[in-house]
């Protein structure tokens, strides 16, 4: 019975009280605004994977949402909507459901504290269960789900017509004769319908992976099965792993499904496919999923995941500002966020994109959200980059809010007892907030007890702020615009004092290590191209922040790679904008335990280095590699156009290398017509890599369109140094960076020392 497939979702939750509660469901108050609060019935569908809710809309929209689409459930008044539209005393009855992608979160109030707890616990259990469903099971639950949809008259039997509908659901167009052939093959009872074991047979035909059969049969040298020794030979020779017999036995224990084979320490083809689809068979080296780099170097020796105008959810002119945007960035392990601060009503400073129609959000609410979410994904320090446009009174309030809300986590003096000469390390700064902004005096003042004579001293405006204000510049390019700075705010700036950049020589002679400059992308890219070596040496002792041009009003992004090549640490991107540049950022920071800090290669860190990414000379940075990659196949690529029931994808794969200019390259396969379910390419490419430590590998799967631009199906990006050799599965992500369950690429990789 295809329905059996569904039990996978909740097999481990059988009889769970919270789950039973959700299946019965109940009334919840849905909150949209202060005036729109309405009771609605919500319950878990008996497939344990869908939530049903009543809707009073005349044009009835879909009354369900899939648990798969839920990003997280948060207890209490944690969303902006609940904070704004509900009273503090209902805190324990509130919860919010946040969705992946752009869908608005759902704010709900339960009738009692206990019911709120059961809703949150029950939903969290199902979500974590869904995540546990490994790819093999996900694909099974996916297949059965589609079978049920295709079984129009719900009789657990499938006619030829239903079969064709089913094939279309899973992205395969079959001609009449092939459909009949498959049908006849499975219809052993000659009843004109498929049922029970016949459907299972049909499923097996569909999930059959010819390319895996070939690999398995080549290595299964023990009575048609793989012994532990056969598996070890495969791991060593094909996967290029330094494996032991214990490793092989561990994989059999973990992934073999057949008990009699497991008893003999053998691995069947099903177990082998299971292994290949798990993290050990993934392209991404599992050892890099945790922090594996030395975290005790000065903080300027790392690339730091950084966001620009973090408060924006959309564009730079009229889009909403939100604390949610900060939460999303921090949860993606962003470690440098930006706060544009302006005077607000009622004496409270606000954050928004000044002189535009973007909405405003309270400074203190943002600081609270940052405090709550800063260290959930990564425990390493977060830099708060302040762009301060406030009057003195509200600046004092900013300082007060940060001190009271962030408490001991806020860094308010150097870690050392005497004047430091270099940055502390991410390790030493774990769990701390560092303020970047203007300072009235040198840091030495902390130790000499001298303070500026007047409390209300002046500083030049931040470079980025001055540029957006179109202020006049004098002959030296120095900004004339001055702002008054409150001592209380100035004193919070320790390791990241903003100063104007006046050339590398000037910086070398006059700038202290803690004085840092911000560069507009055009200026930074120009320096990275024309003075890369000087830029790299500048970044060996100081921090540099790069920000997008003010003209990028649609929140588009610039390519971060040339700036990483020049050793820039804080390359700020618009996190809210799905783009190739954000894919590269996600790829760059995918390793080292999603800490948001990646140790720069040694040749970007030691003083004697002659490395220049633009003109490669001999040196330790050249580690010449031949990179061979075979794009073999893809599985279960999603249909893009859900509105057109007949549309099937014509997939092609692009393989791209980003790094120093000499290594940057792109190749692509042919497109395969009308097959997103199991297209096979078997196309081989070779790349010549000079500087692997700065190289990134990006896969792009597109739907070929002869008449217009190809549509993106999925992508994945990772540092070249984090890949595993051999036969590997590559996960695929949506445009917004969420994993597409059950879809993937299958490739063979060899990154070898060039002869």
TrEMBL record:
Q: Taking every annotated instance into account, which residue ranges of this chain make up the domain PH?
A: 21-128
What are its cofactors?
Ca(2+)
Could you tell me the EC number(s) of this protein?
3.1.4.11
Q: Where is region (Disordered) located? A: 454-477
Binding-site positions, Ca(2+) 5: 703-705
Q: Which reaction does it catalyse?
A: a 1,2-diacyl-sn-glycero-3-phospho-(1D-myo-inositol-4,5-bisphosphate) + H2O = 1D-myo-inositol 1,4,5-trisphosphate + a 1,2-diacyl-sn-glycerol + H(+)
Residue span, EF-hand domain:
138-173
Where in the cell is the protein located?
Cytoplasm; Membrane
Q: Where is the PI-PLC Y-box domain?
A: 489-605
Q: What is this protein called?
A: Phosphoinositide phospholipase C
The gene coding this protein: LOC112235892
